[in-house]
Amino acid sequence: MLEEQLLDPTRHDRQAFTSGVAELDKYLQHFAVQQSKKGITVVRVLVDTNAPRTILGYYSLSAAQVDAIQLDERTQQKLPRYPVPCFRLGRLAAHSAHHGCGLGRLLIGCAVERCLEARKYVAAYALVVDAKGQAAKEFYEHYGFTPCRDNPMTLYLSLGT
After folding, report:
1. Closest CA relative to residue 71, chosen from 7, 132, 17, 149
2. 58 an active-site residue?
3. How many domains does the chain divide into?
4. Whole-angstrom Cα distance, residue 28 to residue 92?
5. Which one of 40, 59, 89, 137 has the fewest CB atoms closer than 10 angstroms to its CB?
6. What is the pLDDT of residues 3-14, one digit of tens each?
7. Does residue 161 have a pLDDT over 80?
8. 134 CB-near residues (< 8 Å, 6+ apart)
9. What's the longest Cα–Cα distance across the chain?
10. Which of 27, 59, 140, 156 is catalytic?
11. What mean pLDDT do residues 72-94 have?
12. 3-state helix vs strand vs coil in the chain, percent to 5
């Protein structure tokens, strides 16, 4: 059974994780624990409960804001003219052995669920992500993210009302 957990360096084998994107692997292996301890981000991993040390995928969430003028015109009409509070999906990666199995979609779903839960306590309009390339941009667009006006590699997903 798949389960989402907070990254725990004593329980999860970060060194064995490989997504095929060196930057994402290096982040998990060398920086995720430090940034979590400093309160910069929260990193959650996806594991199989039958092999709980093996990380199948991960994502990170932190607080963010985006200028309302970066959002599409229809959205702008509903929002104030100052920076809008958001959550940032800083990193998201699936283990390369499981590419094409839907783990990316599952990780986005988990991240959105966490954001919706947090919105009960802290207001945020959207989930924002900075795509690291065209393929990543298309991946996020496939799941409903909209590019920002001045930087199409930054995308957002409204979290609803």
Report:
1. 149
2. no
3. 1
4. 10
5. 40
6. 999 999 999 999
7. no
8. none
9. 49
10. 140
11. 92
12. 30, 30, 35
Cα–Cα distance for residue pair 161/152, rounded to 1 Å: 24
CATH number at residue 138: 3.40.630.30
| Structure token pair of residue 102 | 């839907």
| pLDDT in the model for residue 160 | 84
Can you read off the two tokens belonging to residue 23? 């930057």
Confidence (pLDDT) at 80: 87
pLDDT bucket at 123, cuts 50 / 70 / 90: very high
Q: Please give the structure tokens belonging to residue 46.
A: 């996806």
Write out the DSSP string of 9-46.
TTTSBSTT---S-HHHHHIIIIIHHHHHHTTS-EEEEE
Domain extent, residue 90, equals: 2-158
pTM of the model: 0.94
Q: Where would I find the beta strands (DSSP E) of 7-147?
A: 42-48, 51-66, 84-94, 126-130, 146-147
**Cα-to-chain-centroid distance, residue 106:** 11
Beta carbons within 10 angstroms of residue 102's beta carbon: 11
Sheet holding 84-94, edge to edge: 2-6, 42-48, 51-66, 84-94, 126-130, 154-158, 146-147
